[in-house]
Please model this.
Amino acid sequence: MRAMVMMAMAVLLPAVAPAAAQEGDLVTVPVEVSAEAEGGDYARAHQNAIARAFASAVYAAAAGVIPPGEMAGHEDMLRARILSRAADFVMSYKILEETVDTSHGVVAARMQVTLFMDSLRRELAAAGARAAPRAAAPRLALIVREAGGLAAQGNFLVFPSRGEEALGRALRQRGYPVAGREEARQAKLEQQVAAAMGGDVKAAAAVAEALGAQALALGEARVEAQAAPGGEKVKATITVALRDARGRALLTLSAEDEGVYQGVLQGSVAALRGAAEKLAQDVADAVAARPEFRQGG
Model:
């Protein structure tokens, strides 16, 4: 018999990395792993799959900062000093899908693992590996309005945005200085922000200049809920258009997260946080790949 369990479980681990790393450079790595259920012990197989996911994520992250030509020479060191304590570099993880295959005695999981990269770089350097330094992060102007209701009408900057708060927090954790609606209100940019959200290039450039930003992320957060067995099924979607300091639209990014919760409010907060974590990594990857988002670019 084969059973599939869909999960939307996120786990924030106790802080084991140095405190300085907790507000530093984070990276989220997607992984797929499996583990055999020896003796029919599926609970232990579940834990083994998570441990393998941590090691796989850390290995992939290390391969991303060690020069390709030098990676092979560090395999023994990685296994002995880094992968053996992979959990030390993990801030959080999320199980996106888990399959329990009782006919073959296997547990398989698709996960996202978020790592403390500053700590990993330090450990790699201490072990003799040459790791690429962390690049300077540009300042981002972030405005995310909530779809529906008063928060989407008129001067929406006066209303809080849970989507903006969640995405801003996730970006700051990845080392990005972020200016949001509070800074925009203080600079009296209500009209320019509204025009920029509508696609006005000059207005977007004015917002970037006023907030000292090298990039803008302007968008919308939407939460949908419906009754489901066991509670409320809540789905959150955050979409942002990335613009450079001249206001030019370069690409649009979107992420969503959903699950079944006891209440809509609890589910909204959790789903927005999950969507924000995914989107923050996509934004970070896009910024790193484009020279126009560099400091002074």
Remarks:
- The radius of gyration is 21 Å.
- The longest strand covers residues 215-228.
- The chain has two domains: 2-126, 140-293.
